[in-house]
Amino acid sequence: MGTDDKIDNKAEELGGKVKEGVGRATDDEKLEAEGKADQSSSKLKQAGENIKDAFKS
Fold this sequence. Notes:
Elements: H1 3-25, H2 29-56
Helix pairs in contact: 1-2
């Protein structure tokens, strides 16, 4: 996995923040929860990328 995956992960995280914000603004708890889940998923993927990078060095 490379730079493209890191960019995709960051985009997913930002999309999750947007979903969470829209959900909060519209009192849509389901959308807010989906946003938080997207962010968590993205952060886990980013952590995996960091571990891979550490072993490459």
